Structures are given as structure tokens and as C-alpha cells.
DNA sequence: ATGACTGACGCGTGGCACTC
DNA sequence: GAGTGCCACGCGTCAGTCAT
């Protein structure tokens, strides 16, 4: 099932130019036909529904962009910060497919996420060193909370990746064993013909 | 000032009705 | 059937608006 922009717009209750704007801002990978027209898949619609829900909760597009890899996996977030603060809480997750998680796009986004974390850590460290007196305890607590959550999310991601990798190796070994057993039979039949 | 739209513009394409 | 005109819809771009 695929939707053109007008259908997607009706379904999501969002103007077509807003969908184009989100696509550009969030660097969404929307497929096009030979005319260059957008085709939205069910997965695209689901991601856009999540984006819309986050927008309604008060998230900024930049924050949504950071959460996009998780959104694509079906994870849900709740905005727990004040207005203007993008502090989130993971409120559940749902596995939607290995293809998305292991896709090159997802890997690129993971790298961006990691880069963001490094920048945040560096900034935080520098701020602590140079502006120790200026930073209030309240602000520090919020940033630490956010960083702690981001780090936990990354750790979970890594753990899942290793699990999947281990499963893939086992699957591959099993397939090789099966192939080794079945191969001579086929060979025999071929010559019997 | 900044982020997030929103409207307008010009252009391309496809579908349909109409005429020859 | 082929050519033409009109309309709807899609595209990208850019300037403007509005809320924070």
C-alpha cells in the first residue's frame, strides 16, 4: 500500500507542504516515482504519525530528528520537560524489522546520534570546567538526566545489535550445516537424470 | 532571533473533453 | 486516432508570518 502526498496529507491531517517541510528538515527517505512524486509507504505513514504525535507533545524538529532511528523501530516517547526543553522518557518499544535497524540509513543516523552525544559530553565537560560557579544545580541535574537517558538508550541499542549479530551467525552456521547435508542428494539426482 | 510553518509563484505532468 | 486546451495536482523555492 502506497500513498501520494495528498492521500498521506489527508490520512495524517497535515498539509502537503508540511510533509515536504518535515521530509527536508528531518532528512526522511521518502521514495519517489519516475516523475519525482513522493510515494509514502505504510512504514512512512507510521513514522510520520509518530512525528506528528511528538510535535503535538511539544518536541522541536531537531529533537525529533535525534529520536528518528528509535521512531523507525516503533519506540514511543513522552515529553517530560518543560516547554522548550526536549527531555524525553522512553515509554515502550516494539520491534518492527531487522531491515530498518540494520539499514545503511539507520547506521548513518546512529553515527549522527553518537556524534551528538560526543559533542554534548564535551560541551558539558567544558562548561563544568570553565563555568562551574555559573551553572546552577538545577540545570546540571536536567542535563545529567538527559545524558544518562541518551547513554542508556545507546547501550540498549548496542546490546540489541550484538544479540542480533549473534543470532545471524548461528543462523548462518545452521544454514551451512543444512546445505552440507542436502547438497550431495541434489548432486546425485542431477546425474540420475 | 529563531523555529516552524504558510502562501504564492512558475513550471511540469496526466487526465479528460472537445474538435478535426 | 491525433492534436489542442483546460484543469487538477505535484514539484522546488523563497519571502512572509507568527509564536516563543
From TrEMBL:
Keywords: DNA-binding
Domain HTH merR-type: 1-70
Key word Nucleus present: no
Position of the signal peptide: none
Gene3D superfamilies (UniProt xref): 1.10.1660.10
Pfam families per UniProt: MerR_1 (PF13411)
Molecular-function GO term, any one: DNA-binding transcription factor activity
Protein name: MerR-like DNA binding protein
Organism of provenance: Natranaerovirga hydrolytica
Amino acid at each position: 500500500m502506497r500513498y501520494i502526498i495528498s492521500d498521506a496529507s489527508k490520512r495524517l491531517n497535515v498539509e502537503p507542504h508540511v510533509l515536504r517541510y518535515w521530509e527536508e528538515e528531518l532528512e526522511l527517505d521518502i521514495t519517489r516515482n519516475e516523475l519525482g512524486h513522493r510515494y509514502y509507504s505504510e512504514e512512512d505513514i507510521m513514522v510520520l504519525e509518530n512525528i506528528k504525535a511528538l510535535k503535538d507533545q511539544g518536541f522541536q524538529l531537531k529533537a525529533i530528528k535525534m529520536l528518528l532511528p528509535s521512531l523507525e523501530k516503533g519506540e514511543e516517547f513522552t515529553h517530560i520537560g518543560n516547554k522548550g526543553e526536549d527531555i524525553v522518557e522512553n515509554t515502550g518499544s516494539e520491534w518492527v524489522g531487522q531491515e530498518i535497524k540494520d539499514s545503511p540509513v539507520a547506521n548513518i543516523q546512529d553515527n549522527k546520534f553518537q556524534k551528538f552525544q560526543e559533542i554534548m559530553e564535551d560541551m558539558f565537560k567544558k562548561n563544568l570546567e570553565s563555568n562551574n560557579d555559573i551553572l546552577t544545580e538545577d540545570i546540571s541535574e536536567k542535563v545529567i538526566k538527559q545524558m544518562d537517558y541518551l547513554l542508556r538508550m545507546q547501550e540498549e541499542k548496542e546490546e540489541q545489535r550484538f544479540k542480533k549479530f549473534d543470532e545471524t551467525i548461528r543462523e548462518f552456521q545452521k544454514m551451512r550445516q543444512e546445505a552440507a547435508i542436502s547438497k550431495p542428494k541434489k548432486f546425485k539426482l542431477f546425474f540420475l537424470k
